Amino acid sequence: MPPRFSPKTLQRQLLNWYEEEKREMPWRNNRDPYRILVSEFMLQQTQVKTVIPYFERWIKSFPTLQKLAQARESTVLKHWEGLGYYSRARNLRKTAQIIQQEYSGKVPESLSEIMKLPGVGRYTAGAVLSIAFDQRVPVLDGNVKRVLSRIFLLKENGGNRKSENVLWEVMQNLLPKMETGNFNQAFMELGATVCLPKKPLCLLCPLKRTCQAQESGKQNHYPPRKQPPPSSKIEVSAGVILRRNKIFIQKRKTGGLMGGLWEFPGGKFEPGESPEQCLHREIQEELGVTLHIDEKLMVVKHSYTRFRVTLHVFFCRIRSGRLSPTACEEWDWVKMEELETYPFPAANVKIIKRLMTTRGRASST
Question: What is the tens place of the pLDDT at every residue in 148-197?
Protein backbone atom coordinates (compact mmCIF):
# COMPACT_ATOMS: atom_id res chain seq x y z
CA MET A 1 0.00 0.00 0.00
CA PRO A 2 1.30 3.50 -0.80
CA PRO A 3 2.87 5.56 2.05
CA ARG A 4 0.18 8.27 1.85
CA PHE A 5 -2.60 5.73 2.15
CA SER A 6 -4.73 5.79 5.32
CA PRO A 7 -6.97 2.74 5.93
CA LYS A 8 -8.98 4.68 8.54
CA THR A 9 -9.74 7.45 6.03
CA LEU A 10 -10.88 4.90 3.45
CA GLN A 11 -13.02 3.13 6.03
CA ARG A 12 -14.71 6.36 7.13
CA GLN A 13 -15.31 7.60 3.57
CA LEU A 14 -16.73 4.30 2.40
CA LEU A 15 -18.97 3.73 5.43
CA ASN A 16 -20.34 7.28 5.25
CA TRP A 17 -21.07 6.82 1.54
CA TYR A 18 -22.76 3.48 2.16
CA GLU A 19 -25.01 4.92 4.84
CA GLU A 20 -26.25 7.51 2.34
CA GLU A 21 -26.29 5.54 -0.92
CA LYS A 22 -26.99 1.88 -0.13
CA ARG A 23 -29.79 0.26 -2.09
CA GLU A 24 -32.87 -1.10 -0.35
CA MET A 25 -32.78 -4.90 -0.28
CA PRO A 26 -35.14 -7.22 1.63
CA TRP A 27 -32.28 -9.07 3.37
CA ARG A 28 -30.88 -5.79 4.72
CA ASN A 29 -33.95 -5.19 6.90
CA ASN A 30 -32.38 -7.09 9.79
CA ARG A 31 -29.37 -9.23 10.65
CA ASP A 32 -31.15 -12.58 10.78
CA PRO A 33 -28.39 -15.13 9.93
CA TYR A 34 -30.87 -17.37 8.08
CA ARG A 35 -32.09 -14.59 5.78
CA ILE A 36 -28.51 -13.53 5.08
CA LEU A 37 -27.51 -17.13 4.38
CA VAL A 38 -30.37 -17.49 1.87
CA SER A 39 -29.51 -14.20 0.14
CA GLU A 40 -25.83 -15.10 -0.18
CA PHE A 41 -26.62 -18.50 -1.72
CA MET A 42 -28.92 -16.78 -4.22
CA LEU A 43 -26.42 -14.01 -4.99
CA GLN A 44 -23.72 -16.47 -6.02
CA GLN A 45 -23.32 -15.73 -9.76
CA THR A 46 -26.70 -13.95 -9.92
CA GLN A 47 -27.49 -10.22 -10.02
CA VAL A 48 -29.31 -8.46 -7.17
CA LYS A 49 -32.28 -7.35 -9.31
CA THR A 50 -32.87 -10.97 -10.34
CA VAL A 51 -32.56 -12.29 -6.79
CA ILE A 52 -34.95 -9.89 -4.99
CA PRO A 53 -38.30 -11.41 -6.16
CA TYR A 54 -36.96 -14.94 -5.63
CA PHE A 55 -35.81 -14.05 -2.12
CA GLU A 56 -39.15 -12.51 -1.18
CA ARG A 57 -41.09 -15.54 -2.45
CA TRP A 58 -38.65 -17.89 -0.72
CA ILE A 59 -39.05 -16.19 2.67
CA LYS A 60 -42.83 -16.33 2.38
CA SER A 61 -42.69 -20.10 1.80
CA PHE A 62 -39.72 -20.89 4.06
CA PRO A 63 -39.71 -18.11 6.70
CA THR A 64 -37.42 -20.05 9.03
CA LEU A 65 -34.50 -22.39 8.74
CA GLN A 66 -36.66 -25.13 10.27
CA LYS A 67 -39.31 -24.73 7.54
CA LEU A 68 -36.64 -25.07 4.85
CA ALA A 69 -35.11 -28.13 6.52
CA GLN A 70 -38.51 -29.84 6.51
CA ALA A 71 -39.40 -28.94 2.91
CA ARG A 72 -39.43 -31.49 0.10
CA GLU A 73 -36.60 -31.16 -2.40
CA SER A 74 -39.03 -30.81 -5.32
CA THR A 75 -40.73 -27.87 -3.56
CA VAL A 76 -37.38 -26.19 -2.93
CA LEU A 77 -36.29 -26.66 -6.55
CA LYS A 78 -39.59 -25.24 -7.80
CA HIS A 79 -38.97 -22.08 -5.78
CA TRP A 80 -35.49 -21.88 -7.32
CA GLU A 81 -36.73 -22.42 -10.89
CA GLY A 82 -35.17 -19.83 -13.20
CA LEU A 83 -32.22 -18.90 -10.95
CA GLY A 84 -30.00 -21.62 -12.44
CA TYR A 85 -27.14 -23.49 -10.76
CA TYR A 86 -29.63 -25.74 -8.98
CA SER A 87 -26.94 -27.33 -6.83
CA ARG A 88 -27.15 -24.11 -4.78
CA ALA A 89 -30.77 -24.86 -3.88
CA ARG A 90 -30.02 -28.46 -2.94
CA ASN A 91 -26.99 -27.38 -0.89
CA LEU A 92 -29.01 -24.69 0.88
CA ARG A 93 -31.63 -27.23 1.89
CA LYS A 94 -28.94 -29.68 3.07
CA THR A 95 -27.25 -26.87 4.99
CA ALA A 96 -30.55 -26.05 6.74
CA GLN A 97 -31.00 -29.70 7.68
CA ILE A 98 -27.47 -29.96 9.10
CA ILE A 99 -27.85 -26.73 11.09
CA GLN A 100 -31.18 -27.98 12.43
CA GLN A 101 -29.79 -31.38 13.43
CA GLU A 102 -26.24 -30.55 14.56
CA TYR A 103 -26.34 -26.90 15.65
CA SER A 104 -29.75 -26.73 17.37
CA GLY A 105 -31.14 -24.67 14.50
CA LYS A 106 -28.62 -21.83 14.88
CA VAL A 107 -26.24 -20.81 12.09
CA PRO A 108 -22.70 -21.50 13.38
CA GLU A 109 -20.62 -18.43 14.23
CA SER A 110 -17.25 -20.15 13.75
CA LEU A 111 -15.46 -19.80 10.40
CA SER A 112 -14.24 -23.39 10.52
CA GLU A 113 -17.70 -24.72 11.37
CA ILE A 114 -19.70 -22.69 8.87
CA MET A 115 -17.34 -23.67 6.05
CA LYS A 116 -18.14 -27.34 6.68
CA LEU A 117 -21.69 -26.72 5.44
CA PRO A 118 -22.59 -27.75 1.85
CA GLY A 119 -22.19 -24.91 -0.64
CA VAL A 120 -20.56 -22.54 1.87
CA GLY A 121 -17.18 -21.35 0.63
CA ARG A 122 -14.88 -18.64 1.91
CA TYR A 123 -16.92 -15.80 0.39
CA THR A 124 -20.33 -16.95 1.68
CA ALA A 125 -18.86 -17.68 5.11
CA GLY A 126 -17.31 -14.21 5.28
CA ALA A 127 -20.53 -12.52 4.22
CA VAL A 128 -22.68 -14.34 6.79
CA LEU A 129 -20.22 -13.98 9.67
CA SER A 130 -19.50 -10.31 9.05
CA ILE A 131 -23.05 -9.15 8.23
CA ALA A 132 -24.98 -11.29 10.74
CA PHE A 133 -22.42 -11.39 13.56
CA ASP A 134 -20.15 -8.43 12.74
CA GLN A 135 -17.08 -10.66 12.85
CA ARG A 136 -13.87 -9.27 11.35
CA VAL A 137 -13.88 -11.57 8.32
CA PRO A 138 -13.39 -10.31 4.73
CA VAL A 139 -15.46 -11.00 1.62
CA LEU A 140 -14.14 -11.21 -1.92
CA ASP A 141 -16.53 -11.26 -4.87
CA GLY A 142 -16.07 -9.90 -8.39
CA ASN A 143 -17.02 -6.38 -7.34
CA VAL A 144 -14.55 -6.33 -4.45
CA LYS A 145 -11.75 -7.67 -6.63
CA ARG A 146 -12.32 -4.91 -9.19
CA VAL A 147 -12.35 -2.12 -6.58
CA LEU A 148 -9.18 -3.42 -4.89
CA SER A 149 -7.37 -3.79 -8.20
CA ARG A 150 -8.15 -0.20 -9.18
CA ILE A 151 -7.50 1.44 -5.82
CA PHE A 152 -4.03 -0.07 -5.52
CA LEU A 153 -3.21 -0.70 -9.21
CA LEU A 154 -2.98 -4.40 -8.48
CA LYS A 155 -2.47 -6.62 -11.51
CA GLU A 156 -4.65 -9.22 -9.86
CA ASN A 157 -8.00 -10.55 -11.03
CA GLY A 158 -8.35 -13.64 -8.84
CA GLY A 159 -7.87 -15.86 -11.87
CA ASN A 160 -5.64 -18.30 -9.98
CA ARG A 161 -4.96 -19.33 -6.38
CA LYS A 162 -1.98 -16.99 -5.94
CA SER A 163 -3.87 -13.97 -7.25
CA GLU A 164 -6.90 -14.83 -5.14
CA ASN A 165 -4.76 -15.06 -1.98
CA VAL A 166 -3.17 -11.66 -2.64
CA LEU A 167 -6.61 -10.05 -2.85
CA TRP A 168 -7.88 -11.83 0.27
CA GLU A 169 -4.88 -10.53 2.22
CA VAL A 170 -5.33 -6.95 1.00
CA MET A 171 -9.01 -7.01 1.94
CA GLN A 172 -8.25 -8.49 5.36
CA ASN A 173 -5.83 -5.64 6.08
CA LEU A 174 -8.45 -3.03 5.15
CA LEU A 175 -11.15 -4.23 7.56
CA PRO A 176 -12.17 -1.87 10.37
CA LYS A 177 -12.35 -3.15 13.95
CA MET A 178 -16.09 -2.43 14.03
CA GLU A 179 -18.88 -2.34 11.42
CA THR A 180 -17.16 -5.02 9.37
CA GLY A 181 -20.44 -6.21 7.90
CA ASN A 182 -21.34 -2.75 6.65
CA PHE A 183 -17.81 -2.24 5.35
CA ASN A 184 -17.91 -5.48 3.35
CA GLN A 185 -21.33 -4.59 1.95
CA ALA A 186 -20.09 -1.07 1.13
CA PHE A 187 -17.20 -2.50 -0.89
CA MET A 188 -19.54 -4.78 -2.84
CA GLU A 189 -22.06 -1.95 -3.30
CA LEU A 190 -19.37 0.38 -4.64
CA GLY A 191 -18.34 -2.17 -7.25
CA ALA A 192 -21.94 -2.91 -8.23
CA THR A 193 -23.12 0.69 -8.62
CA VAL A 194 -20.10 3.00 -9.16
CA CYS A 195 -16.84 1.15 -9.88
CA LEU A 196 -18.40 -0.61 -12.87
CA PRO A 197 -16.52 -3.01 -15.17
CA LYS A 198 -16.95 -0.58 -18.09
CA LYS A 199 -17.23 3.20 -17.84
CA PRO A 200 -16.86 3.48 -14.04
CA LEU A 201 -18.55 6.51 -12.49
CA CYS A 202 -15.38 7.89 -10.95
CA LEU A 203 -16.76 11.37 -10.26
CA LEU A 204 -19.34 9.80 -7.93
CA CYS A 205 -16.84 7.59 -6.11
CA PRO A 206 -16.17 8.33 -2.43
CA LEU A 207 -12.65 6.93 -2.88
CA LYS A 208 -11.68 8.95 -5.97
CA ARG A 209 -8.89 10.78 -4.10
CA THR A 210 -7.48 7.44 -2.93
CA CYS A 211 -7.81 5.43 -6.14
CA GLN A 212 -4.54 5.08 -8.05
CA ALA A 213 -6.29 3.91 -11.23
CA GLN A 214 -8.43 7.06 -11.30
CA GLU A 215 -5.40 9.25 -10.61
CA SER A 216 -3.45 7.68 -13.49
CA GLY A 217 -6.42 7.38 -15.86
CA LYS A 218 -6.05 3.59 -16.06
CA GLN A 219 -9.47 2.57 -14.76
CA ASN A 220 -10.28 0.51 -17.85
CA HIS A 221 -7.00 -1.42 -17.63
CA TYR A 222 -7.69 -2.82 -14.16
CA PRO A 223 -8.24 -5.52 -13.20
CA PRO A 224 -6.48 -7.48 -15.98
CA ARG A 225 -8.95 -9.41 -18.11
CA LYS A 226 -9.52 -13.09 -17.47
CA GLN A 227 -9.46 -15.56 -20.33
CA PRO A 228 -13.11 -16.52 -20.90
CA PRO A 229 -13.76 -20.27 -20.75
CA PRO A 230 -14.40 -21.89 -24.14
CA SER A 231 -18.10 -22.11 -24.99
CA SER A 232 -19.40 -25.09 -26.93
CA LYS A 233 -22.61 -25.43 -28.97
CA ILE A 234 -24.96 -28.35 -28.40
CA GLU A 235 -27.93 -29.40 -30.56
CA VAL A 236 -30.69 -31.28 -28.74
CA SER A 237 -34.10 -32.72 -29.61
CA ALA A 238 -36.97 -33.10 -27.13
CA GLY A 239 -40.42 -34.62 -27.41
CA VAL A 240 -43.69 -33.42 -25.95
CA ILE A 241 -45.26 -36.88 -25.94
CA LEU A 242 -49.06 -36.74 -25.76
CA ARG A 243 -51.52 -39.41 -24.60
CA ARG A 244 -55.18 -38.82 -23.75
CA ASN A 245 -54.74 -35.13 -22.84
CA LYS A 246 -51.66 -35.84 -20.75
CA ILE A 247 -47.95 -35.22 -21.35
CA PHE A 248 -45.01 -37.45 -20.45
CA ILE A 249 -42.31 -35.92 -18.22
CA GLN A 250 -39.34 -37.43 -16.46
CA LYS A 251 -37.12 -36.48 -13.53
CA ARG A 252 -33.37 -36.17 -14.05
CA LYS A 253 -31.21 -38.40 -11.86
CA THR A 254 -29.89 -36.85 -8.65
CA GLY A 255 -26.19 -36.06 -8.78
CA GLY A 256 -26.02 -35.23 -12.48
CA LEU A 257 -26.36 -31.91 -14.26
CA MET A 258 -29.64 -30.29 -13.12
CA GLY A 259 -30.40 -33.42 -11.11
CA GLY A 260 -33.81 -33.54 -9.45
CA LEU A 261 -35.46 -31.35 -12.11
CA TRP A 262 -38.15 -32.58 -14.49
CA GLU A 263 -37.84 -32.45 -18.27
CA PHE A 264 -39.29 -33.49 -21.59
CA PRO A 265 -37.40 -36.56 -22.88
CA GLY A 266 -34.77 -36.32 -25.59
CA GLY A 267 -31.04 -35.86 -26.03
CA LYS A 268 -28.06 -34.62 -28.02
CA PHE A 269 -27.57 -35.01 -31.75
CA GLU A 270 -25.12 -37.58 -33.01
CA PRO A 271 -23.00 -36.66 -36.09
CA GLY A 272 -25.08 -36.41 -39.26
CA GLU A 273 -28.47 -36.69 -37.53
CA SER A 274 -31.45 -34.50 -38.27
CA PRO A 275 -33.54 -33.25 -35.31
CA GLU A 276 -36.21 -35.87 -36.08
CA GLN A 277 -33.69 -38.72 -36.36
CA CYS A 278 -32.14 -37.70 -33.07
CA LEU A 279 -35.50 -37.72 -31.31
CA HIS A 280 -36.47 -41.14 -32.71
CA ARG A 281 -33.16 -42.65 -31.54
CA GLU A 282 -33.16 -41.02 -28.09
CA ILE A 283 -36.74 -42.04 -27.29
CA GLN A 284 -36.07 -45.60 -28.42
CA GLU A 285 -32.94 -45.75 -26.21
CA GLU A 286 -34.42 -44.01 -23.15
CA LEU A 287 -38.05 -45.13 -23.17
CA GLY A 288 -38.06 -48.30 -25.27
CA VAL A 289 -40.79 -47.12 -27.64
CA THR A 290 -41.06 -45.82 -31.20
CA LEU A 291 -42.57 -42.46 -31.96
CA HIS A 292 -44.86 -40.79 -34.42
CA ILE A 293 -43.76 -37.17 -34.75
CA ASP A 294 -46.75 -34.90 -35.45
CA GLU A 295 -45.19 -31.46 -35.87
CA LYS A 296 -42.46 -29.16 -34.66
CA LEU A 297 -43.53 -27.01 -31.72
CA MET A 298 -40.57 -24.63 -31.46
CA VAL A 299 -36.81 -24.12 -31.35
CA VAL A 300 -35.39 -22.95 -28.01
CA LYS A 301 -31.99 -21.31 -27.69
CA HIS A 302 -30.55 -21.10 -24.19
CA SER A 303 -27.08 -20.18 -22.90
CA TYR A 304 -25.40 -21.76 -19.91
CA THR A 305 -22.01 -20.82 -18.46
CA ARG A 306 -19.90 -22.99 -20.74
CA PHE A 307 -22.23 -24.09 -23.50
CA ARG A 308 -25.12 -22.92 -25.65
CA VAL A 309 -28.04 -25.21 -26.39
CA THR A 310 -30.33 -25.22 -29.40
CA LEU A 311 -33.34 -27.34 -28.48
CA HIS A 312 -35.67 -28.66 -31.20
CA VAL A 313 -39.06 -29.50 -29.70
CA PHE A 314 -41.72 -31.72 -31.31
CA PHE A 315 -45.28 -32.79 -30.57
CA CYS A 316 -45.33 -36.57 -30.82
CA ARG A 317 -47.15 -39.77 -29.83
CA ILE A 318 -46.08 -43.31 -29.03
CA ARG A 319 -46.39 -45.49 -32.13
CA SER A 320 -45.43 -48.87 -30.68
CA GLY A 321 -43.69 -50.56 -27.79
CA ARG A 322 -44.09 -50.72 -24.03
CA LEU A 323 -42.93 -47.67 -22.10
CA SER A 324 -39.91 -48.58 -19.93
CA PRO A 325 -37.92 -45.45 -18.92
CA THR A 326 -34.31 -46.25 -17.97
CA ALA A 327 -32.52 -42.87 -17.97
CA CYS A 328 -34.52 -41.06 -15.28
CA GLU A 329 -35.27 -41.19 -11.57
CA GLU A 330 -39.07 -40.86 -11.90
CA TRP A 331 -41.60 -40.36 -14.66
CA ASP A 332 -45.25 -39.43 -14.96
CA TRP A 333 -48.11 -38.50 -17.29
CA VAL A 334 -49.51 -35.11 -16.25
CA LYS A 335 -52.14 -32.67 -17.44
CA MET A 336 -50.84 -29.58 -19.15
CA GLU A 337 -52.01 -27.27 -16.36
CA GLU A 338 -50.05 -29.39 -13.86
CA LEU A 339 -46.72 -28.77 -15.60
CA GLU A 340 -46.25 -25.46 -13.78
CA THR A 341 -46.21 -27.23 -10.41
CA TYR A 342 -43.04 -29.18 -11.28
CA PRO A 343 -39.50 -27.74 -11.23
CA PHE A 344 -38.01 -27.64 -14.76
CA PRO A 345 -34.73 -26.31 -16.19
CA ALA A 346 -34.99 -22.84 -17.72
CA ALA A 347 -35.01 -24.09 -21.32
CA ASN A 348 -37.92 -26.42 -20.55
CA VAL A 349 -39.82 -23.60 -18.85
CA LYS A 350 -39.82 -21.83 -22.23
CA ILE A 351 -41.45 -24.92 -23.74
CA ILE A 352 -44.15 -24.92 -21.06
CA LYS A 353 -44.95 -21.25 -21.72
CA ARG A 354 -45.36 -22.03 -25.42
CA LEU A 355 -47.53 -25.04 -24.64
CA MET A 356 -49.90 -22.86 -22.67
CA THR A 357 -50.52 -20.81 -25.82
CA THR A 358 -51.15 -23.95 -27.92
CA ARG A 359 -53.30 -25.77 -25.36
CA GLY A 360 -56.22 -26.43 -27.70
CA ARG A 361 -54.04 -27.92 -30.43
CA ALA A 362 -52.15 -30.16 -27.98
CA SER A 363 -55.23 -31.49 -26.22
CA SER A 364 -56.90 -32.44 -29.49
CA THR A 365 -53.93 -34.52 -30.65
Answer: 999 999 998 888 889 989 999 999 999 999 999 999 999 999 999 999 99
Residue pair 325/248 in contact (Cβ under 8 Å)? The answer is no
- With respect to residue 2, please indicate whether it lies within any of the assigned structural domains: no
DSSP 8-state symbol, 135? -
Task: Indicate the residue among 161, 194, 221 that finishes a domain.
Answer: 221
Smallest CA-to-CA distance from 262 within 242, 295, 238, 281 is with 238
Helical ranges in 177-274 per DSSP H: 180-193, 212-216
What angle do helix axes 142-151 and 180-193 make, rounded to 10 degrees? 80
- Among the listed residues 19, 20, 21, 40, the single catalytic one is 40
Q: Which of 221, 254, 271 is the last residue of a domain?
A: 221
Active site residue 40: yes
Q: Which amino acid is at 53?
A: P
Cα 276 to the chain's mean position, in Å? 33
* β strands within the chain, DSSP E: 232-243, 246-251, 262-263, 266-268, 290-303, 307-320, 330-335
170 is a domain residue: yes
Residue 242: inside a domain:
yes
Tell me the residue range of the domain where 77 lies.
7-221
Kindly report, residue by residue over 103-117, the tens digit of the pLDDT.
999 999 999 999 999
What pTM does this model have?
A: 0.78
List residues bridging with 335 in a β-sheet.
Answer: 246
Q: How far apart are CA 357 and CA 355, in angstroms?
A: 5
Residue 34 belongs to what H/E stretch? helix 33-43
Q: Which one-letter DSSP state was computed for residue 335? A: E
